[in-house]
User: What shape does this take?
Amino acid sequence: MNNYLLPLTGGIILGLSAIWLLLTLGRVAGISGIAWGSIAGPDRGWRWLFLIGLLLGGLMTHSLLGQPVPSESTAPLWLIAFSGLLVGIGTRMGSGCTSGHGVCGLGRRSPRSMAATLTFMTLGVVTVFMMQNLIRGGA
Amino acid sequence: MKAWPALISGILFGLGLTLSGMSDPAKVLGFLNVTGAWVPDLIFVMGGAVVVTLALTPWVMRREAPLLASAFSLPGQQLLDRRLVGGAMLFGIGWGLSGYCPGPALVSLLYGYESTLVFCLAMFVGMTLEGRLSRALAGSESAN
Assistant: This one.
């Protein structure tokens, strides 16, 4: 029971963050879009502030609230780099990631975001399945 | 446009991602591992977030404009296309390979791990390459 309290609280805070940004600035809290816009976009100021805040929020969790820092991924660096490359290409091509489509887009009941969320969730599950059963199992 | 509310939104987002466990790639991979030792945490993260946005977005959108900007800047496109689905597929594969999506990866830069730095750099390279790649794909399609 207690195990799900932090994920649920964290999720509610994520939702409130997205609503606050929509209410004040009329913007979507989509991290891939904000990250890309911070280097390529016309309105960089608010995006940089958001990203600075993102790090500050993480700092608060681990230093003020004392949540343990998660351990580093054990995947080889080439796989991490390949994964990052796909995430970069895919989020630009598909106009969003877990936050923009998953949190904000579903909230706006956007059909595009529903399709995107179903697609990346499914592919994420399939990829993990293949990594677990075909590649690691076969080795 | 005033920008300071973005700082508050960012702080909340960083708090939410780290409190919920989203910045732990092992938990994310555990969530995607539905046929193995499934870790259900992320259902609560996504569920909590989406319940809030589903409930409050219509209330915000009843306004003619946001509080501190002249207009809402929302994606106008409604139709599903191959770019959306193809992009979401590539993103899903990348997500499943490492357990990182953009928000958790960026906030994890705090931890000073080599792998999150490599992921973020590669992500920006991918974002930069996407335009060229999509143009090349569109070009080869019209040539066929």
About this structure: The radius of gyration of chain B is 18 Å. Residues 4-72+80-143 of chain B form one domain.
